[in-house]
Design goal:
The complex is a heterodimer.
Chain A: H1 3-7, H2 44-49, E1 64-70, E2 76-82, H3 84-87, E3 92-97, E4 106-108, E5 114-116, E6 121-122, E7 128-134, H4 137-146, E8 148-153, E9 177-185, H5 188-194, E10 197-205, E11 217-223, E12 226-231, H6 236-247, E13 254-257, H7 273-285, E14 289-292, H8 295-301, E15 308-316, E16 322-334, H9 346-350, E17 357-365, H10 379-396, H11 401-406, H12 427-438, H13 440-449, E18 456-466, E19 477-483, E20 488-492, H14 501-513, E21 520-524, H15 541-568, E22 575-578, E23 581-584, E24 591-593, H16 598-603, E25 605-611, E26 624-634, E27 640-650, H17 657-676, E28 709-714, H18 738-750, H19 761-776
Parallel strand pairs in A: 1-14, 12-13, 16-17, 20-21, 27-28
Antiparallel strand pairs in A: 1-7, 2-6, 2-8, 3-7, 4-5, 9-17, 10-15, 11-12, 11-14, 15-16, 18-26, 19-20, 19-25, 22-23, 23-24, 26-27
Chain B: H1 2-11, H2 18-42, E1 55-61, E2 64-70, H3 76-83, E3 102-105, E4 108-111, E5 124-126, H4 139-146, H5 156-169, H6 175-181, H7 192-208
Parallel strand pairs in B: 1-5
Antiparallel strand pairs in B: 1-2, 3-4, 3-5
Helix pairs in contact in B: 4-7
Classes of the chains: A alpha+beta, B alpha+beta.
The complex binds FE2/S2 (inorganic) cluster (2 copies).
């Protein structure tokens, strides 16, 4: 190998950070050369060329295709299943149902509430009744249609507000209350009597569905007693542990691979019944089975953001001091315990300084699909209520809505025991620098003037937020392997769910070892060959895995320096890594090429293991956000056009500006869906069935729904107390304030409060008409 | 099926917006139902092809001919992905709702899930694999990389084909035209802003012949 070839592995002229002494924590990066720049994703080629194999692309020799028969009623008992016709159909290789002997496995939602994979009692439309494996997907569906089921149809309840009525059918023996949570600090009564203004309002957010573009499903294959699953999942280890537990297999016999996956947003943190069904069919037929749901099934059975009815009463003094917040919420996680009210009061408890807070949340059962965590569980709902309330309070006391928020910024977490401080909070900067970048004051004046101009009104709105988690935590293990030519292999268990995890981790390795990003190869998301990682969710993947990867790279560096020290007969603390050489900081003539280091040559590779260290004690790591938008409302048609959006986020250090901005825009886009178009509609009176179970009637935002002007302004405050890379999570905060910001802008434009999502033209026209009547009274 | 041809003819060279596509897809669906009824009423005794039985067709995919037996009901998407292994083309719904399956048919973006394989005889089918130049990416793909025009990447092949089709018809599209052009391709990750930037960049790259 000649000199120039060798240099392809190194970034020329880039100083590599100093190596900490063995056993010492690395100090925070001061100046970075790779981290923080904009580099395209390391797996971009695979994703745009089509060579990336998603689980739904896997085709194994002799593979069968499976399809599931689901209960068409929201509440019914399966009396009889007749699969005889299906069994004899062309291409059909196996049919299983609750009647088949080898399907008797438990599926549990909580300690108390368990069902079976094919349970005779179906509590929501879409519960699994039977399944088929056949040579083609078409044949599997033919067979599903040929299965006849006798149902005893039971009365249903489709509205959470009526779930607790005495006339409503009971879903579970202990009643329809899944969970009640209460929280209180201070004395809200005293707080309200201190206030100059007290407002009380009821808000509602509709049920939102995850709808990742890749459907839910997997391929399952057995080799004797060893099961391999390729699943579209956010984490392989969480799939492995649950499947092993259900099927009673040792963890070592369940291998889960999840390299590429087409989006999850929280709905793919866990396996589904489909994973078990595919495994059972594969076992029964002795052939690999692919089971991916249809789009329609994903509307019914793989989770949602629970709908919430929220009542919020708030008191404020004329000078903008919040005196009391009282919040109550009824939400539903569907037919089973599924955390329907998870974190839905968190922003009320924690976002603004307020001594007197009381919350009560109630999760009730209805006959609908159970929810799953959905991008910042509870937070966009709470922001919808709290952030509209903040606007209303500001108006009442004649204060700018940003000023009111700035008056109430806490430096510690009031919602947690002992008021622990945040490691960092950039909420103030998010609001004030965001306002400047957005041109808030001018835009606010300009658009309020537009109230006079014709039927199209302009308005601007702001909302802020924080995310409950986002600091990451142990455990995580990463392994970095340095080859003798200086190229590097990184082994980690985490999945890259589209957030750019692999790219960010590559940048960390590159930063520490000076190796070019393209010379780093990642092995990831495979329980058989990569390290343990928790699933990618909670906006914690970068702050969890990043420090482990950094530690692993540093361990490689330390070993390399000490091997080189032996060769150079010097002390390793005087050595540093520069390009493709280890060199003495005292005497530049004392140096050795990496590939000549004896210790590396002898071993072939140097392996460094890194672990995620503990989080700081008695401190809270949270990301913060403020978003701004401008809208145009057509008061004749009720149409809202979002003209521009600015996302201003404090997520600590920006690891890759390109993927960072993409994530910000993506979160805003999803929030626009919640605000404007998305709602699960159940036929609550007649059938209890979902009526808009397709992507025409359930409307995801399209390219025409996002504003032409989308901006991202990071408030970059590396959080060096939080972890050794200084980054906090981003994926969830980016969608928390969005919907509320839109509602506030609509209010600013036309003076009506849209308290329920989605703000459809019909809803808005009705509200405008009501408002007009009230004004003319 | 003259109205089917009409659909075909009217859509050629004009491109379809999401809305127009839905109208034409709806018309197609009606025709299928109607002929289904006809068949029953008239008790047509002609041989019915059963599940698992094939009819022989030749498809022209990315410039190569493929002769094969297909069931008449198989969609082009099924044939591409499951029978031939062109898995770049994705399935997001299988019924004309999402655009993940977008391919070019005679240069125009079409949903492969809404096209029967037997209908796709005699036309030129292009998938993302067909935009590659050996191992190298084509200009639209390169622009997508540069502008990070995706997150999970699942809608991406469809988005790329939509942009490719747009640029073949309109080499210098405005932002509005791009927004329309990809409006039949859902991206739940919400990468639209970057997709639009990438489409602009791809237009420049194609124009300057830089690739
Ligand atoms: S798969 Fe064809 S449009 Fe969705
Ligand atoms: S990149 Fe994930 S759906 Fe578009």
């Amino acid at each position: 190998m000649n000199e120039s070839e060798r240099n392809i592995y190194y970034l020329r002229g880039i100083p590599v950070p100093e190596t900490p002494p063995p056993g010492k924590d690395p100090s925070p990066w001061k100046k970075t050369d790779i981290v923080g720049t904009s580099i395209p994703r390391v797996d971009a080629y695979e994703r745009v060329s089509g060579t990336a194999l998603y689980p739904s692309d896997i085709r194994l020799p002799r593979m069968l295709y499976a399809a599931v028969l689901r209960c068409p009623h929201p509440h019914a008992e399966v009396m009889n299943v007749d699969t005889s016709a299906a069994e004899g159909m062309p291409g059909v290789r196996a049919v299983i149902s609750g009647k088949t002997s080898d399907t008797d496995f438990a599926w549990w939602y909580s300690k108390e509430i368990k069902t079976k994979i094919f349970d005779p009692l179906c509590r929501f439309e879409g519960e699994e009744v039977a399944a088929v494996a056949a040579e083609t997907a078409y044949q599997a569906w033919d067979a599903v249609r040929a299965i006849t089921v006798e149902y005893k149809v039971l009365p249903f309840i489709a509205e959470e507000s009526k779930s607790l009525d005495s006339s409503s059918p009971l879903l579970h023996p202990n009643g329809n209350t899944a969970k009640t949570d209460k929280y209180s600090r201070g004395d809200v009564g005293a707080g309200f009597s201190e206030a100059d203004v007290v407002l009380d309002e009821t808000y509602r957010t509709e049920c939102e569905l995850h709808m990742p573009m890749e459907l839910h499903g997997c391929v399952a294959s057995w080799d004797n007693d060893r099961l391999t699953i390729w699943e579209s999942a956010q984490g392989v280890y969480s799939i492995q542990s649950r499947i092993a537990e259900i099927l009673g297999l040792p963890l070592s016999k369940v291998r889960v691979i999840g390299h590429y996956m087409g989006g999850g947003f929280g709905s793919k943190l866990q396996p589904g019944k489909y994973t078990v069904i595919a495994s059972l069919l594969a076992k029964k037929t002795g052939r690999p089975v692919r089971l991916f749901l249809t789009r329609e099934e994903t509307f019914l059975a793989v989770g949602n953001r629970p709908p919430a009815i929220m009542q919020l009463k708030a008191g404020v003094k004329k000078d903008g001091t919040l005196t009391a917040l009282e919040f109550s919420c009824i939400a539903t996680g569907g037919a089973y315990p599924a955390n329907g009210t998870s974190l839905v009061d968190w922003l009320v408890r924690d976002l603004y300084l307020c001594p007197n807070v009381k919350t009560e949340t109630k999760d009730v059962y209805i006959n609908a699909g159970p929810s799953r965590p959905f991008r910042a569980p509870g937070h966009p709902q709470a922001a919808w209520a709290l952030e509209q309330m903040m606007d209303a309070l500001a108006e009442k006391i004649g204060m700018d809505p940003i000023e009111l928020r700035l008056k109430n910024i806490p430096s510690f977490s009031q919602g947690r025991e002992g008021n622990p401080p945040y490691t960092t909070t950039g909420l103030r900067e998010c609001l004030s620098e965001g306002a400047r970048a957005f041109g808030w004051e001018q835009a606010r004046k300009r658009s309020s003037g537009s109230k006079e101009n014709g039927h199209v009104k302009r308005g601007v709105g702001v909302a802020s937020g924080l995310w409950f988690a986002g600091g990451g935590n142990p455990p995580s293990t990463a392994v970095v392997k340095l080859f003798s030519d200086g190229s590097v292999n990184l082994n980690m268990g985490a999945s890259d769910i589209g957030t750019g995890t692999k790219t960010v981790m590559t940048m960390i390795v590159s930063e520490e070892l000076g190796v070019k990003p393209e010379m780093v190869q990642i092995e990831y998301a495979d329980t058989a060959t990569t390290q343990y990682a928790t699933p990618s969710g909670g906006s914690k993947t970068v702050p969890t895995e990043g420090p482990a990867v950094r530690a692993a790279a540093l361990s490689v560096k330390q070993q390399l320096l000490s091997f080189a020290a032996a060769d150079l007969k010097t002390d390793d603390s005087s050595l540093t890594l520069r390009g493709d050489e280890v060199i003495s900081m005292k005497d530049p003539l004392v140096k050795v090429k990496i590939h000549d280091v004896t210790g590396l040559r002898k071993r072939g590779v140097i392996v460094g293991v890194g672990y995620r260290g503990p989080n700081p004690e008695r401190k809270v790591v949270n990301p913060f956000a403020a978003q701004f938008c401008e809208v145009e409302v057509n008061t004749m048609t009720g149409e809202v056009r979002i003209v521009r959006f600015l996302g201003c986020h404090d997520s600590g250090r920006v690891m890759n500006r390109l993927t960072y901005d993409n994530q910000v825009f993506g979160g805003i886009t999803m929030g626009i869906g919640l605000a404007m178009t998305e709602a699960r509609i159940l036929d609550r009176d007649q059938t209890g069935k979902m009526v808009n179970r397709n992507l025409h009637d359930y409307k995801l935002p399209t390219s025409l729904d996002v504003p032409k002007e989308m901006k991202s302004l990071p408030i970059e405050k590396p959080d060096d107390t939080a972890n050794t890379i200084g980054a906090k999570g981003l994926g969830e905060p980016v969608t928390i304030p969005t919907a509320a910001a839109v509602a506030n802008a609509v209010y600013h434009a036309v003076g009506v409060r849209m308290t329920g999502t989605p703000i459809t033209p019909l809803q808005l026209c009705q509200a405008l008409e009501k408002d007009g009547k009230e004004r003319s009274k | 099926m003259s109205s089917d041809e009409d659909n075909h003819a009217c859509s050629c060279g004009k491109g379809l917006t999401r809305r127009q596509f839905l109208t034409s897809a709806g018309a197609g669906a009606l025709i299928v139902t109607a002929s289904g009824h006809l068949g029953k009423d008239q008790e047509v005794s002609a041989a019915v092809i059963k599940s698992g039985e094939g009819t022989k067709i030749t498809l022209l995919i990315n410039g190569k001919q493929f002769q094969m037996l297909v069931e008449p009901r198989w969609s082009l998407l099924h044939v591409l992905r499951e029978e031939l292994g062109f898995t770049a083309t994705k399935e997001g719904c299988g019924r004309g709702e999402c655009g993940a399956c977008t391919v070019l048919i005679d240069g125009m973006p079409r949903y492969a899930c809404m096209t029967l394989a037997v209908e796709a005889e005699g036309v030129e089918i292009t998938t993302v694999e067909g935009l590659m130049r050996g191992e190298d990416l084509g200009p639209v793909q390169k622009a997508f990389v540069e502008h990070d025009a995706f997150q999970c990447g699942y809608c991406t092949p469809g988005q790329i084909m939509a942009v490719e089709g747009l640029l073949r018809k309109e080499p210098d599209p405005t932002v509005e035209q791009i927004r329309q052009g990809v409006s039949g391709n859902l991206c739940r990750c919400g990468a639209y802003t970057h997709i639009i930037n990438a489409a602009r960049r791809a237009a420049e790259m194609k124009k300057s012949g830089a690739v």
